[in-house]
Amino acid sequence: MNEIWQGLLEAIKLIVSLDPEILEISGRSLWIALSSCLLASVICLPIGGLIHFQRFAGKRTLISLIQTFYSIPTVVIGLFVFVLLSRTGPLGGFNLLFTPTAMIIGQMLLVIPIVLGLTISALSGIDKVIPDTARSLGAGSFQTAVVVLKEARFAVTAAMIMAFSRAISEVGLALIVGGNIKGFTRVITTTISLETAKGDLELALALGIILMFIALVINLVLNQLQTR
Predict the structure, then answer these.
(1) CA-to-CA distance for 186 and 171, rounded, in angstroms?
(2) Is the pTM of the predicted complex or chain greater than 0.70?
(3) What CATH number has the domain spanning 2-227?
(4) Residue 219: closest CA among 156, 155, 153, 164
(5) Do 79 and 153 contact (CB within 8 A), yes or no?
(6) Any idea where the domains of the chain sit in the sequence?
(7) Which of 90, 109, 140, 193 has its CA 20 to 30 Å from the CA of residue 80?
């Protein structure tokens, strides 16, 4: 209990003092998580709309498969990206392994099933009267999809919030493809792992509290935007 209290005090001290290293690590964590979620959203929103509005054989099986990937271990994604970006891998020539870009790619692949699956669920929850009305008023397929997406915006935003939470809190993937290089790929979660291994539990707890604070602030901002 004393360690938790000391960790809380250490977190307050680091935040108030604007510790340069903590600010750097926190900024990198935030940037990587937001970038991966943004890229995943750009990819998944149109694909989710396409899957929802189109009828084809195996649609239910495809959706079930997407939902199965919700709980895929981060180390599995990390291993896949590592093989993909390693020197002998198909993308090894780009020298992306152990860079923030590799971490963004990995986290993007990690959250794609979440954004895609929850987008499809959000669109499925919209009353069929809305797209039917849009079509009756002369809207084309694209315009109808936009109307339905606007109606589902609250659920879609919730999907993005969940994806961000998943991205910023993961550690296995970041260690495998990022390498936890100080000043380059080190993020809050990998720093927590490192400090815990070193036995500095107070700093590890402080970083955990800072991570939760960042996640809270981002979620509050997104919820506020959702309400507006």
Answers:
(1) 11
(2) yes
(3) 1.10.3720.10
(4) 164
(5) no
(6) 2-227
(7) 193
